[in-house]
Amino acid sequence: MGKRAFVFPGQGAQYVGMGKAFYDSIPACRDVFDMASEASGLDIAALCFEDNDRINVTEYTQICMLTAEAAILKALKEENIRPDVAAGLSLGEYGALLAADVLDWKDAFSLIRKRGIYMQEAVPEGGAMAAVLGLHASAIEEICRKVDGTVSVANYNCPGQIVITGEQAAVSGAGEACKEAGAKRVVPLNVSGPFHSPMLAGAGEKLGKELESVEIKPISIPYVTNVTADYVTEPSTVRDLLRLQVSSPVRWQQSVEKMIRDGVDEFVEIGPGRTLTGFIRKINRNVTAVNIDKIDDFNRYLEKQR
């Protein structure tokens, strides 16, 4: 018997209207949006459902994404569908924490709101990110070490897709060097800062102070952290890992490979878009990867469980 993983996407997958059908049709999901609004002091339903520019601004994106993910997670819990393990990409790791019962839901919404603000405030002038396609990770890491300035790997997404982050000039220089080394393409990303770079360590430190007063509960199922691509089973390590996660590389490919080695053969992406489903299929085509974004996705998945 294989294992099921719930996985949660990160920033970039957001869109206006995400989660609305769940909000409209499932009272427990509406309660999640209300709880997020209360914890954040924002009208999360309006931010998610009505045309606005703020949904793409980091300090609002993060709370909106987590709310949409948590609402779908709640709908699955209501149907008694639960995972054996959980993981999330960047802010999606907070969805994994909810799936593993590590955080009180109100605390999670409050933390992710502050995380978004701290990351937005910490964004330095001249930061950038770029996706490097078709070059091995070890070659990219070596190039980052040799380029003048601050540049490092932000995301190990899947084979052939690595994201680099840092100072704009250093990211540009590393991108050119990657193309010379055989990368198929280097695509600058339309982001507001060099996320998952040591340049954002200050935001992690601020978040760490907030975490000191938050209760970390016993972990009901293992979850895989971005920082180490390994299971977290000890509550005492959670605070440090969430602090470090802000400025550390997201080891997504390694996280998925770890779960597969340990028997996971079904990945359920919970939240907007199909980004993680695509990554997982590139990592290993022998496992099942499905996404639950729309209410129709949810209903189809329920039918398969019956």
Short description:
It contains 13 helices and ten strands.
Q: What are the low-pLDDT stretches, counting only 5+ consecutive residues below 50?
A: none
Give the SSE string: EHHHHEHHEHEEHEHEEHHEHEH
Radius of gyration: 18 Å
**What is the name of the CATH superfamily of the largest domain?**
Malonyl-Coenzyme A Acyl Carrier Protein, domain 2
Average pLDDT: 96
By CATH, the architecture of the largest domain is named: 3-Layer(aba) Sandwich
Relative strand content? 15-25%
Q: What is the domain total for the residues?
A: 2
Helix content: 40-55%
Total number of helices: 13
Alpha-beta classification: alpha/beta
DSSP E strands, number: 10
Order of strands in the sheet with most strands: 8-7-2-1-9-10
> Could you please say which CATH topology of the largest domain applies here?
Malonyl-Coenzyme A Acyl Carrier Protein, domain 2
Q: Estimate the global geometry from the Cα principal axes.
A: globular
Characterize the largest beta sheet: strand count, sense, and whether it forms a barrel. Answer: 6 strands, mixed
Distance between the termini: 17 Å
* CATH top level assignment of the largest domain: Alpha Beta
